[in-house]
Amino acid sequence: MKPIPAGKQQALVTRLMKASGGTYSPATRRKYYITGPQWAGAYQGQALFHAPTREAIGFEDVIREYGKIGIGYWATHDTGVIPTAALGKDEQWAIVGQIQKSLKKHGLACSMVTTETFFHAVWAASPAAESPQVRAYAAFRVCNTVDVGHELGAQFAVYWPGSLGYYTQGAVEETETLKWYAAALNAACEHDIAVAKKKKRPALKHCLEAKPFEPQAEILLPTSDAMLAFISSGVLTHPEMVGLNPEYLHELMWGAAPRAALARAILAGKLWHFDINDGYRLKHDVDIAIGLVNPLDWLNVLVLLRSHGYNGPFNLDYKPPRTTSNHGVFAVSFPTAVDRFITLWEMAGDVIADPVIKEATDALKAGGEAVDTRDAEAVTAAHRELLTLHELVAHRMFQLLVGAHRGRTYSV
Ligand code: 3MF
Ligand code: MG
Ligand code: MG
User: Fold this and answer.
1) For atom 5 of ligand 1, which residue has the closest CA?
2) What is the pTM assigned to this prediction?
């Protein structure tokens, strides 16, 4: 092939995107509770060892482009749209007014707001630092986010505590730090109760998001399970207002099975919000878009969520790759991520309705014929053939994933 001149590359991408097919219409995409974070759309490709590869864009651009794609909901960090120095001031409310206008113009709703408690130097010793002043500032920040959330019509507040941990051992007393962290959440919940009452709105759902490491070396609440224990430990004044925002890749990062982590959150009644992305076990938080690494596992995850009636947001918390251009972020990265989610979600419906999987599962639950249940050999023998169905179910899931259940075969 001849070299492609820069001026013809966008057209090539557009043509190949069309040739790929399988896209859903914006109207169809809007039927799902898919949320687009400001930070994902505006991510410029920067990281510890990485210079930005894309130009900066603001919320007007992100909201407009999400609207065109058919992403119906928008979410943001406070400082993703409001400069730190303007927080809580008149300038903040002017910006919030602009955001409201943009959302209305492009037909989006704000689903979630979150406080950035990891980027600014003030968080160097975490939002639950020893200094009462830092903690008072943290309380101001989370309460201010509650105000912004109500003003924008959000239903959720999310907390990724980022720097709640340490680089070096012994510098921090863990129980005290956790109680101080709880104090900030308590301030947010109590403030929320008052604001919700005044505004005649339901209170926000406050969702904790765990990540096992990064940016700190050691993290005080590293997993969703740790957060469930924290919620019910007695340190929160309103544990009923606090649930989870698990993130798929954050669970993989510590070697967990995301589906099992989600199942534990479901049992606790705390699966309220879900950050969707993909990546690899025991590695950096690469934030690859959903389904590009573990499509079969993702299908399994969505089967679990569908069968338990999960109706919260699916938040596209991933990072368009550094190799993708500003144009590509909204022409390829977001629409394809949304479409893979929809495909996997609908496929999860196929799995639930599949007669082979259904009969196999029912048979496994029915068990073998009655034997003496105090006789290990007899119980084992009564189920020997039945248990082969486990592998058959897994094979059937694979068939559903590749379309073999609809007759797709290869002749050699
Ligand atoms: C970090 C994350 C965060 C959180 C966000 C919401 C930048 O790995 O996943 O995204 O989701 O801070 O609170
Ligand atoms: Mg996240
Ligand atoms: Mg993440």
Assistant:
1) 160
2) 0.97
The atom of ligand 1 lying closest to the CA of 115 is 13
Q: In this structure, what DSSP letter does residue 169 have? A: T
Q: Report pLDDT for 374.
A: 98
CA dist., res. 381 & res. 378, Å (int): 5
Residues 220 and 223: their CA atoms lie apart, in Å, by: 9
Ligand that comes closest to the CA of residue 77? 1
Q: Which residues of the chain have pLDDT under 70?
A: none
Residues whose beta carbon lies within 6 Å of some atom of ligand 1: 39, 114, 158, 160, 209, 211, 247, 275, 285, 317
Distance CA 128, CA 217 (A): 16
Tokens at 188, concatenated: 């947010």
Task: List Cβ neighbours of 72 (8 Å cut-off, separation of 6 or more).
Answer: 29, 30, 32, 33, 34, 107, 108, 109
- Condensed to tens digits (0 to 9), the pLDDT of residues 197-206 reads 999 999 999 9
Q: Cβ atoms within 10 A of the Cβ of 399, count?
A: 15
For the CA of 247, the nearest atom of ligand 1: 9
Strands (E), 122-235: 156-159, 165-166, 205-208, 218-219
- Alpha helices of 21-173 — where are they, by DSSP H? 26-29, 38-42, 59-69, 78-81, 90-106, 132-152
Measured CA to CA in angstroms, residue 205 lies from 20, 32, 73, 199, 250 at distances of 39, 19, 16, 16, 21
